[in-house]
Each structure stands twice: as C-alpha cells, then as structure tokens.
Please model this.
Amino acid sequence: MNSVAERIQHRMHDLRGQLDHDLGEAVDTAKEFTDWHTYVRRYPWACVGLAAAIGYLVVPSRVELESPDVDTLLELARKNKLVVEANPPPHKRRGIASRALRMISQTALRSALAFLGQKAGEMAARETGPADIRE
Model:
C-alpha cells in the first residue's frame, strides 16, 4: 500500500512540474502574441502595406476648387441655380481630441517607417556580409 501512495505522490509531483512548465509556455506565447515587434519580424511586407494603407486613410483628400467661366455663371444665373453667399460660414476648427489623434497617428506612422527602414538596413547588411578589408 505504501508503494502505491509513493507512486501517486511521485506522479502528482511530476504533474505539478509539468503544469508550471506549461503555464510558463502559455505566458510566453501570450507575450509574443501581443508584441507588435513579432509581427514586423515575421511579416515585414504586410506591415509595410498596412502602414501605407493607414497613411493613405489618415491623409485628408485634396480640395478641388473650380473657377467657372462667365458663360457658365450666366447659365446658372438664368436657371436660378446660382447661389452667392456674402458671409460664408466659418471653417470648423478641429477639436483637441481630433488633433491629438492626428498627432498620435502621425507619430506612430513615423516610428513604424523608421523601424522598417532600420530593419531593411539590417537585412541588407546581413545579405552583403562583412565588408572586405582592402590593403
């Protein structure tokens, strides 16, 4: 009976050690999953594409102004579709949250581009190998 109890105790000790090891692996995996550096290392081109897409969405579109000719203005005036406002509404100012978000996104984009440039330089240096010493 004593040997059965010892075997159970030994097995329980092994299981506790295994649980500690498995828990450590789970924590390491979770840290790796939430670290953005991992994705940049594994998928550099996808990250470049994502940064470009975010940059495209963040930059506002260009306002196009049209200057109609005299004939077009006369035609619009005849059709009563010409509206002239003496006091146009003032341009809306952006709020502090909008300005802060824009600043943060620009900073993040610059940081991402700097990081990608650094990694590209490191990859290029690795591919060329150490420089030959010439005498």
User: Anything to note?
Assistant: The radius of gyration is 32 Å. Residues 2-34 form the longest helix (33 residues).
